[in-house]
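Collaborator request, handled under Task 6.
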Amino acid sequence: MLRLLKRLGLGLLALIALALLASFIVKPVMTTRLVGLPFGGGQGPTELVRGGPVPALVVATEAERTIPAAVLDAASKAAEGTKAYSLLIWQGGALQLEQYYGDHNAQSVVSTQSMHKSVLALLVGIAIQQGLISSVDDPAAKYIEEWAGDERKHITIRQMLQQASGIDFPAFPAVIDMTIGDGLEKITFEQGVLAPAGTQFDYTNINPEVLGILLQRVSGMSYAEYLSENLWRHVSDDPATVLIDTETTRTPRTFCCLDTTARAWLRFGLLHLNHGRVADQQVVPEQWMQDVITPSERNPNYGYLTWLGTTYQKERRYNRKSSAAAFHSEPFAATDIIYFDGFGGQRVYIVPSKQLVIVSTGPLRQDWDDALLPNLIIRGMSD
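Structure tokens returned to the collaborator:
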């Protein structure tokens, strides 16, 4: 029996090796990165997004805290129970709690997955204000020539922001190539139409990827440079990095992979609380900030690349091709909640009615409960 098990094990290893060899022949960059990930390898090269001088964050002393100590302690223990890397809680104009776990600290840069999408939404509004994009209702094909000659020419920028473009998208395992492979523009623009534009909500990576490429083209700058000059340096003193596909093509992955500190994410939550302002500067147009959080026709819990807590859904499905869903054990305790959603426990929750921002970063996990932290804190403030 032992000999048989060894033979089966060797046979399985041989099959895996052959599969990797075949994959390497077809997609050498993707395969090399995939094999290297468990050994500390990266998803690809990055570009720097520079920060700038911004007002210091106000940190509440123990006597100045507006959230009861017992509530902060309960929130911290709940975050620790999810194996969080960080938990930041801002309320009433000051940082009430800043907690890091394990080896993480205020300088730690972590991967926060799709939270990038909600930053991209703000940058699109800036491009419209600058006249680089005429209107949110422009067909994307006005700026993306690859879409001009077929039915994709009807897709508008608004529909992409609302994840209602109808564009097709790769499912697993093809999505791995989009995440760590090269030739990102080719993968993006080979997607056809799945449904008529404006008829179906499908949370996908293609919509934000097209928008990122569009911004790079209309600005004539690298995406990282445009993001830094027009948004990031006005909001955060901590820099960030954006993942690109290769050093040659330098196509940014704008559906994910904007890596920075928890404090930087807190500042983008504050940007929502302050209607696009930082100190006396209107960084993002105030009307655009409102447009970003206006429920869309196809999904009342989604605005422009940003999630909302408008209607309770126990399981928030992302798209028709995937069984992946976010879990909500109960309705949010505040109806005006806004949040950035990164796969697993990466979240920025913003509650304007409570002047509250919660930042959580941590490992990837399927069992994240979106209601847990915000409801614990909101109810604790109300007691």
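The cover message to the collaborator said: "Residues 16-23 have pLDDT under 50 and may be disordered. Residues 46-382 form a domain with the Beta-lactamase fold (CATH 3.40.710.10). Please let us know whether this matches your experimental observations."
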